[in-house]
Amino acid sequence: MKMHHQNAITSQDPAIENDPTEETVTEDTAETDSFIYFDDSDIQERLEECQNSILGKIVSEKAIHMNSIQNALSNIWCNPKGFRVEHIGDKLFHFFMDEQEDMKRIIRGNPWFFRNSWLIVHPWRRDIDAQSLEFRHAPIWIQLWGLPTQCRTKQMGIKIGSSIGTVLASELYEYPDKKLIIKIKVNLAVNKPIKAGIYIGSAKDGAHWIDFRYENLPQFCFACGLIGHTEANCKLHDTRTNTESTNKNVLGPWLRYNHFGRRIMDYKDRKFSSNPTKCKNYGHYMHPIPPKMLEEMAEMSMLNHIKDHPQSHNTNEEHTKKGGSIIDMSQPSSSTPLWLTVL
Ligand SMILES: [Zn+2]
Fold first, then answer.
1. Residue 132 C-alpha to ligand 1 middle, in angstroms?
2. CATH code for 48-132?
3. 240 CA to middle of ligand 1, Å?
4. How far apart are CA 15 and CA 17, in angstroms?
């Protein structure tokens, strides 16, 4: 109020004289009649109930049977003490439990599976309106298969992961057969199509297709790549363009993988599973390399060569013998034996 007073002295602005904050401190009974003030003592009971509670949304177009959800989730979450469910919106729930440890454990496990769909959870907070929470992202581990040996770095994992979403982690994992892969944890957008993989390329290493293998991916549509429905219920099914129909060859159940492998440096984890390259569907498809990408890499390769050999790029005998710039693809992955020479 002191500041306001000083301003009023130095300014003749009538807006300051009529400052609306002035009205809130006056005793206006007409205003207070339409406003009921409450404090925490009025809602104490509910606050205590809510303090270890979780909001959750099931990402699915399927109908949910309300009478089964409490028992099913109690089983999935190992019977949290005092577990109770409230239905608060479209596939949106408020889960209550007594113990903070249970609450933290369930939040750490995000996202969960419920009837082959994702259940995305979020800790309840009194300043967040559950209806406005969007539940649009889920943290998911993705294995990157097909990276050339020299590209298996955490930095490459971050670079590739950035094309999918926010990268939360990038780690080197070792498999029982001594194979090394990069695994990335990405905050995946649940309303965007699942990607089967991506091309990476450099002038020196050529183009490589990298297979994405998602750990704990729920049911998704092999036609459009979206989570929450199957091909039979796909809205794009009848109106698919040629580009979309090629997805059918790429998207399939093989994109879903269980967690396995061992993070390098983490010697406590000794639980292994099978090798994904033994999956009968693994590596059975091959993307055509986009011609534009080949052109760009050929140009990059030429430029690199000129930069490395500025005096001899026109007369280099070895180079002209090979008839042009060679993109070295000598490190193909076992699943994608992709050799390519760009002339
Ligand atoms: Zn679909």
1. 26
2. 3.30.70.330
3. 10
4. 5
Average of pLDDT values for 234-246?
Answer: 58
Q: Ligand 1 centre from 249 Cα, in Å?
A: 14
Of 16-20, 32-36, 197-201, 219-223, the range with the lowest mean pLDDT is 16-20
Reported as type and span, the H/E element at residue 87 is strand 84-89
Mean local confidence (pLDDT), 127-135? 86
Q: Residue 277 and residue 177: Cα distance in Å, rounded?
A: 11
248 CA from centroid of ligand 1 (Å): 11
Say what the pLDDT of residue 252 is. Answer: 84
Peptide bond just before 80 cis, omega within 30 deg: no
Contact 186, 138 (CB under 8 A): no
When pLDDT is averaged across residues 109-133 and rounded to a whole number, the result is: 91
| Nearest one of 237, 233, 209 to 223, comparing CA atoms | 237
Confidence category of residue 277, pLDDT binned at 50, 70, 90: very low
Amino acid at 51: Q
Q: Find the 198 Cα to ligand 1 centroid distance in Å.
A: 20
Note the pLDDT of residue 142.
95
pLDDT of residue 286: 55
Taking residue 220's Cβ as centre, other Cβ atoms within 10 Å add up to 26
Q: Residue 1 C-alpha to ligand 1 middle, in angstroms?
A: 60
Which contacts (CB < 8 Å, 24+ apart) does range 64-69 have?
64/91, 64/115, 69/93, 69/114
Angstrom distance (rounded) from CA 84 to CA 53: 9
* Secondary-structure breakdown of the chain: helix, strand, coil percentages, each rounded to the nearest 5: 30, 20, 45
Domain boundaries, the chain: 2-32, 48-132, 137-278
